[in-house]
């Protein structure tokens, strides 16, 4: 009997560990996104690919990175940052916070996790991505990225419908059909040649569209920045991702997610070149840019 109980407890512990790993890897984010953020806060003059150019769009009120007069010693464009924060953003002392104030009651913990994610990206993910980029040529990296993006059309289409954006839902269905056929299973973005661009809807935006407040800002290990609302949204989106229910073996799903993360980082190796050295407070810049960008996306 003790052996039976021990075996069952061991199996339960293994399943729990796998479940935790899947939650950490299924949030549509990566370690590098802790600096990049899905909604991006940078404007880059010459992005390396269409995937990067989409991620570096920003609102006028977000922190912006502008090209400098020249290039630094590493060949990267010099950047400067202007953070759109005024004394009025903090509200009156002792009074309620201003509407645009970044709500971050867990800032002390968030900063430590943010630094952990940044160092993990620098010393683990980026070196792995560099080796990967040597083995896999960039055209194939783009094809792999297109394939993962094509598979994840379901959350974008469903959230477009939930927000009443029927044209966006139709556009996502059209992109999937065109890319799955003319694009050879989604390896090529054939739909863009017809002027059909993908939507950028997620369940976090859907909750915001229906009036759910964002809640506190949150940084979780190995995941990109979020708010409590966006964290719930990512969990729902991950359940709608076809990879979560068409892949029969959990380890295969984890391997595919890790492959997607490394491939995405390889496509964005030089995205942060010189950026960290140009920002006095990187954590605040990322937070402010992420929150302002999410506000804009919900309003669009």
Q: Roughly how much helix do the residues carry, as a percent range?
A: 55-70%
Number of helices: 13
Termini separation comes to 61 Å
On the 0 to 100 scale, the average pLDDT is 75
The H/E string reads HHHEEHHHHHEEHHHHH
The biggest beta sheet reads:
2 strands, antiparallel
How many strands? 4
List the topology elements.
Elements: H1 2-25, H2 33-36, H3 50-55, E1 64-71, E2 77-82, H4 107-135, H5 138-151, H6 153-162, H7 166-181, H8 203-209, E3 217-218, E4 226-227, H9 228-240, H10 243-246, H11 250-267, H12 275-278, H13 282-299
Antiparallel strand pairs: 1-2, 3-4
Helix pairs in contact: 1-11, 4-11, 5-11, 6-7, 8-9, 8-13
Written description of the protein model:
The protein has 300 residues and is mainly alpha-helical. The chain has one domain (34-299). Helix content is 56%, strand content 6%. It contains 13 helices and four strands. It has helices spanning 2-25, 33-36, 50-55, 107-135, 138-151, 153-162, 166-181, 203-209, 228-240, 243-246, 250-267, 275-278, 282-299, and strands at residues 64-71, 77-82, 217-218, 226-227. Strands 1-2 form a two-stranded antiparallel sheet. A two-stranded antiparallel sheet has the order 3-4. A hairpin with a 5-residue loop joins strand 1 and strand 2. Helix 4 crosses helix 11 and helix 5 (138-151) packs across helix 11 (250-267). The longest helix is centred in the middle third of the chain and has 29 residues, at 107-135. It is globular.
